[in-house]
Amino acid sequence: MSTTRNPKAFVVTMALPLLYLGGVAPDAPAGLTLLQEAHAVVGAPLTPVSVAGVARRTTRRVVVAETSATQAAAASTVATQQQQAATAQQQSATAQQQSATAQQQAATAQQQAAAARPAGAPASGAVVTALPAGCKPEIRDGVEYQNCGGVYYRAAFQGNNLVYVVQ
Prior knowledge:
Layout (H helix, E strand, L loop, with lengths): L6 H15 L1 E2 L7 E2 L17 H66 L10 E2 L7 E5 L2 E6 L2 E8 L2 E6 L1
């Protein structure tokens, strides 16, 4: 085959692959380049729109979001536990204070009862076999007591013996 028959077909056949690979570049000599300059190949792992790049960024975002959500939940749980502990302490302190107040009131009542008794009177709950002189009978709530100078005695039996219990 000879190239003299159709020189245009020969030139077109040789030029098309060169045009496909080449490009127009103003800074190149004669304004033409054989290969275009490659900036980034879409699909390479570090390019912004590659599948690997998108997957990497998505994974980072999910991990950061989950980490911050987990930390917030943990902080909330710790704060709730601290508040519950503080409330329990406060309730315990209140209970102790109420107990101390009740003890003070009981002690005050005992002191007042002791002060109301005449000097030399037997202790409450003591058992005597005979009443002092000058006792007067009094009935309270259907029970007969003996009032002996402000000290009250109630009759009771110990076995077959009549005794008096100081009230």
